[in-house]
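call fold(seq) -> tokens
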Amino acid sequence: MTAPGVSLEVRNLRKSWGATDVLKGVNFDIHAGGFLTLLGPSGCGKSTALKLISGLEDVSEGQILLGGNDVTGKAAADRNLGMVFQNYALFPHMSVAENIIYGLKVRKVAKDVQQASLKRVADLMALSPLLDRKPAQLSGGQQQRVALARVLVSDRPIVLMDEPLSNLDAKLRVEIRSEIRALNKKLGITVLYVTHDQSEALSMSDTVVLMNDGQAAQIGTPQDLYDRPENTFAASFIGTPPMNLIAAKDVILPDWVAAKVTSDHAELLVGVRPEMMQLHGDEADFAVSCTVSSVEYEGSVFLVHLMTASDVPFILAHHGTGAPAPGADIVVGWASDAAHLFSSKTGQRIPSS
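ret:
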């Protein structure tokens, strides 16, 4: 039986190389058995944070606590962590079975315990028919299952995953991420997951830490980040297509917003999700006069690319028939409860009340 998960606490985590600050004081917690994802673009510091937590890099400042115990100065081997990497890191000359139990052999675990653990994990990961094969004889999805099995067999209470699905095709990514989430729930292991793929983060996580330039731009549930982005970075990163951010001067505003434009928030941005906009929006709370640049058909939805009078592009997601033609001048609108307000000076969310 896999060991129950332990909590992870990260306090003011900083990492610098010379004068370059890579992490600038990151804080987050994962409860025992939780699933937290570090999400963000390349270079944001998410993989560096994972390396510091694993013990593969030294911390410049801050604390890392596992199960309430400070492990900041401990070697990687003394932290009792499992790791799954992007490149699987399987031994090509070993069979699937030998790859899975390799860590147990190195630790000189009794052979009968090795075999019992192998059977348990191979059954769990649907690898039993493949135990005699070499990695080269496996598909990408099967190789990733072997990498996961190797971690699970070691009974680590917390598993760190560094973009483990990025080498798989889209269909396999969906299948394997469902399996990872199911294992997290079934076994109670704590998972810290790193990805640049928002669909992975939103579909798998209890909590998402959205990283930008070495800092946490927003921390919350997937629904928090989607429904209430705290800044323009979160608004423009989360969502496919991402939230539209339109200057207030291009928008016909309701009175309660127009009052903000003349106060401290003169540089107001109005945010709206593409799927919350509607054609023929003359009677809507918010409206924009615009021109259709192009239309993309994506099966269940038309993505209508639009341009404001001041040449700011944005997108409307239109379901059904009757998508406008390129070159048409139209008015689109949306309801007040679909609007998000931001300061263009600070990028921060402005309360609607």
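The longest helix spans residues 170-187.
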